[in-house]
UniProtKB/TrEMBL annotation:
Residues 41-258 form the Histidine kinase domain. Keywords: ATP-binding, Kinase, Membrane, Nucleotide-binding, Phosphoprotein, Transferase, Transmembrane, Transmembrane helix, Two-component regulatory system. The keyword DNA-binding does not apply. It is found in: Membrane. One of its GO terms (molecular function) is kinase activity. The chain holds residues 626 to 894 of 894 of the full protein. This is histidine kinase.
Length: 269
């Protein structure tokens, strides 16, 4: 984690130096402001779960003998949950660092989108408890020249958000299809949707809306990572509100040359 932080700081410093060299002092000042904001946000995101872990473990050690079994289990569960949150956060930071430094490793193989979606749904099973899901896959959808692991991570992020930001009992739909332009994957929900004007900013690092409710814990990195991965794979990702009813829709597109029939034709010709 420290390394990731150092990397982020080093990148900021590099930019700072570069900007100064170019005599663009305003850019340098802005970079410096961003760096401070980034460090403040990182420190906050680290301190909150650490404080919970410290509180719970201290209670257990000092007063554990006074508690009954259920209370001890509660404290242990808090420690576990907060440690998992930290682990996720560190994973996110590392992914973000890889994206920023252009060091994402892509293993391109023919990817069956049906399998990727099934794996992502399996991985989000516990988050999806309390929601309904629907899958609409085009029959005979061509394979995509892509990286199944990265794609799965993108879908997991989108599905987790769809579960996190929408009321229990609502429907989350995943659909996949293709046309002459390429392949289209969508995750649709029935929550409040994306605030008008925030369709682009939701993809920025550490941008969070409606996140004052602390139960909706997050890092504000999920969508930035989704965009980083999708773009590294040659696609685009956009966010919006559903036109027909309340809800958010995230749309991923991959251009036709990445569809497998196109690749086979190219190889034949
Ligand atoms: P995080 O979930 O950690 O806050 P993300 O980058 O995944 O970070 O999302 C950024 C912000 O976009 C969220 O804080 C939330 O306000 C908004 N958002 C993401 N997904 C949805 C969704 N399905 N419906 C409504 N708002 C969403």
């Amino acid at each position: 984690l420290l390394e990731a932080l150092m990397d982020q700081a080093a990148i900021a410093v590099e930019r700072f130096d570069l900007a100064e060299e170019m005599g663009q002092t305003r850019l340098a000042a802005e970079t410096e402001r961003l760096r401070s904001a980034l460090l403040a946000s990182l420190s906050h995101d680290l301190k909150t779960p650490l404080a919970s872990i410290l509180g719970a473990s201290t209670s257990l050690r000092q007063f554990g003998h006074l508690f009954d079994r259920a209370d001890r289990d509660d404290l242990a569960a808090t420690i576990e949950e907060e440690a998992r949150r930290l682990t996720r956060f560190v994973g996110n930071l590392l992914d973000m660092t890889r994206i920023d430094s252009g060091a994402i490793v892509i293993e391109r193989t023919p990817v069956d989108m049906g399998e990727v979606i099934a794996t992502a749904l399996q991985a989000t099973k516990s988050v999806l408890e309390g929601h309904r899901t629907a899958l609409a896959m085009e029959e005979g959808l061509p394979f995509l020249a892509s990286d199944a692991v990265l794609l799965e991570q993108v879908l997991v992020n989108l599905i987790e958000n769809a579960a996190k930001y929408t009321p229990a009992g609502t429907l989350i739909t995943i659909d996949a299809g293709h046309d002459a332009a390429g392949m289209v994957l969508r995750v649709l929900d029935e929550g409040p949707g994306i605030p008008a004007g925030a369709e682009e900013t939701v993809f920025e690092k550490f941008q969070r809306f409606r996140a004052r409710d602390h139960r909706l814990a997050g890092t504000g990195l999920g969508l930035a990572i989704c965009r980083g991965f999708v773009e590294a794979l040659g696609g685009t990702i956009t966010a919006g509100s559903r036109p027909d009813r309340p809800g958010a829709v995230f749309t991923i597109r991959f251009p036709a040359p990445l569809l497998l029939p196109a690749i086979l034709e190219q190889a034949a010709g």
